[in-house]
Specification:
Blueprint (H helix, E strand, L loop, with lengths): L1 H25 E6 L7 E3 L2 E3 L1 H13 L2 E6 L2 H10 L4 E7 L2 H4 L3 E2 L4 E10 L3 H10 L4 H25 L11 H15 L12 H36 L11 E5 L3 H8 L4 E5 L2 H9 L5 E5 H10 L6 E3 L4 E10 L4 H15 L2 H9 L6
Parallel strand pairs: 1-4, 1-5, 8-9, 8-10
Antiparallel strand pairs: 2-3, 5-12, 6-12, 7-10, 7-11, 7-12
Helix pairs in contact: 2-12, 6-7, 6-8
Keywords: Membrane, Signal, Transmembrane, Transmembrane helix
Protein name: Extracellular solute-binding protein, family 3
Organism: Croceitalea dokdonensis DOKDO 023
């Protein structure tokens, strides 16, 4: 009798254990981190493109799950270790990640871009006039003054005796020569002073030819200086930011991309918004990340009104859900359903509601 009681007790415990284990296995641990418009978490309200897609998939496949918020880096590590079953964030499919996790069928294609702080009108004016005080630019003006003084003095020496009305004797005559040189070189041509002697006319020819060549070179230098200064100031190409302080999301594909391209000064953040706030405060020169996420956050957040998105597009990315490595059967089921949903007209409507379209 006692033996039967022991067996019955063991049987009941085993049943409860099996039931508990089965319940634990069947309920998926699904992690996310805010990445609007794909995952939007505001005031305890959870929505977004990826959340809609996951709910449709889970409903169609009769999957039980619990949603767990995590920081992006922690979420990736937990998925690699098998501590969570699914990440519904827009994860970029890469070869390195594929060795440690499974990916569903891709549901959206995007690219990285650059967010910068727009310059104010005052800063643009300062930048423009600042180019005129560049050391090479100032050297050009000094050399121009030397040319004018040389030919003006030479003309005065040739003219002050034969033409004292136009080129007066003494220091005032030197000024007359300088004035005549400036008027002649600038092609204003007042005609108030002009050389009469042969030597004076030869000096005038020398001024015209030398001055024309020099002024042409100086004009080209000014245009080049202003153009280079503008390119180096804010909106240069992708390589412009290699030596500047840029921000991105920690452990993201964007960070790997920047490191592989030898960016010197990279600041990483757990989420996009803190990085954009630092960019707004001029703590960063640029923030580089996925274009749809950057654009959505900047448009929705009034505190980021001075930020702008550059037209540069690079690092094409394909988004998918991440699945733990040993859940191949689960990944196949989810991938099949994602493929069916993304081929429907309903998917296009959902994308358009969040201001997105297929890449």
């Amino acid at each position: 009798m006692k033996k039967k009681r022991v067996l019955v007790t063991l049987f009941i415990v085993a049943c409860f254990t099996m039931a508990f284990s089965r319940g634990k296995t069947d309920t998926l641990r699904v992690a996310y981190t805010p990445a609007a418009p794909f995952v939007i978490a505001e005031n305890e309200l959870l929505e977004g493109i990826n959340l809609w897609l996951w709910q449709r998939v889970a409903e169609d496949l009769h999957l039980e799950y619990t949603l767990e918020p995590m920081e992006f880096s922690s979420m990736l590590n937990a998925l690699k270790r098998g501590e969570i079953d699914v990440s519904i964030n827009p994860l970029t499919i890469t070869g390195e990640r594929s060795r440690e996790m499974e990916f569903t069928h891709s549901f959206f294609a995007s690219h990285s871009t650059i967010a910068i702080t727009e310059k104010s009108s005052l800063e643009k004016v300062k930048q423009f006039f600042g180019a005129f005080f560049h050391i090479n630019f100032l050297r050009g003006f000094v050399l121009l003054f030397v040319i004018l003084l040389f030919f003006g003095s030479l003309t005065w020496l040739a003219e002050h005796k034969r033409n004292p009305n136009d080129f007066r004797p003494g220091i005032r005559g030197v000024w007359d020569g300088l004035w005549w040189a400036m008027v002649t070189l600038s092609t204003v041509g007042y005609g108030d002073k002009s050389p009469k002697s042969r030597l004076g006319k030869i000096a005038a020819l020398g001024l015209m030819f030398c001055g024309l060549l020099f002024v042409s070179g100086l004009t080209a230098s000014i245009a080049s200086s202003l153009t280079v200064d503008q390119l180096e100031s804010s909106q240069g190409d992708f390589n412009t930011y290699k030596k500047r302080k840029v921000g991105t999301v920690k452990d993201s594909e964007a960070e790997s991309f920047l490191q592989a391209r030898f960016f010197k000064d990279i600041s990483t953040y757990d989420r996009v918004l803190p990085g954009l706030m630092d960019l707004e405060k001029s703590k960063l020169d640029a923030f580089i990340y996925d274009e749809p996420i950057l654009r959505y956050i900047i448009q929705k957040n009034t505190d980021l009104h001075t930020l702008d998105i550059l037209p540069q597009k690079f690092d094409v990315q394909f988004y998918a859900f991440g699945i733990r490595k040993d859940a191949i059967s689960l990944e196949q089921q989810i991938s099949q359903r994602i493929l069916e949903i993304t081929e429907s007209q309903e998917w296009q409507i959902v994308l358009s509601e969040y201001g997105l379209s297929e890449f």
